[in-house]
Structures are given as C-alpha cells and as structure tokens.
Amino acid sequence: MARRAPVRRPRGRRERPAGREEMSDVYDLHIDTDVTVQLSGCSREDAQAVFDVLDGVYQLEDLTTPGPQTTTGPSPTVWTATFDTAGGRHQEVRPTRLSSPVGATLSGGYHAVDEVEKVLAVGFDIQSLQSVSGDQETEARLLLASR
After folding, report:
1. Secondary structure (H, E, C), 112-147
2. pTM score
C-alpha cells in the first residue's frame, strides 16, 4: 500500500464573508487596547481629576459612578472607567493636583496597561504597589499622588 504525502495548506487567516466574525475575533479587537481603571480611597473630585487626565489622552468607553450614599458611616467607594488606548484626543498631559493619595487598579492587555501607566506617571507621582500577570491580561495596582 502506497503512502500519500500530507497535503500542505497555506497558513494564515481564512477569509470570512463580511459581517461573519467569530466571537473570538470580536474579543481580540479590544483585548490589547481597553484598560479598566478602578479608583478607590478618594473623593469624587480626585476620581474626576484622574479620569479627566486619561479622557484627554484616550477614548472613554464606559464610566460607572457610585450613587448617593445611603448608609451612615464610612463605606468603600470605587470609581470605574474603561478607556480605549487606540482612540482618543491624545492631548498633552500636565501634572494634576489631588487632595489626597488615590489607589488605582489598571487591568487589560499588557501593552495598553503599560501605556496608561506611563500617562499617569506624567500627571501624577506614582508608586507601584503590585502587578499580577495572566495569560493575556495584566493588572497593576498603583498609588497616585500630586506632583
């Protein structure tokens, strides 16, 4: 019995009809550019100051602000926004004043988180507290303060 030689097919992406993206293709479009920024331990004004710096450089995708306080006494508040590092105005960043240090958690693709961290380092004094890396995403915990 004669053996057949294996058929070699060209490598690369196969063409799909327009409008027929697979779910993984849609996911891949934003994995490297979207960064979620969570701010804690700060006032509404300080959170807005940090988000304003990032909004001047990148495109704001989503913003979640806590509602009015319904409990008495201290309660944790987290301000969350997602920025697309591929889009936006890319304005020059200037040092920004904060009334107190702000805890920031950045999560997203490696390159995008690195870019956001560089922008924040221009506007604020930053201290890296921790970094956790995954397969395709990373998380950086920072402490931001006025320059």
Report:
1. HHHHHHHHHHHHCEEEEEEEEECCCCEEEEEEEECC
2. 0.73
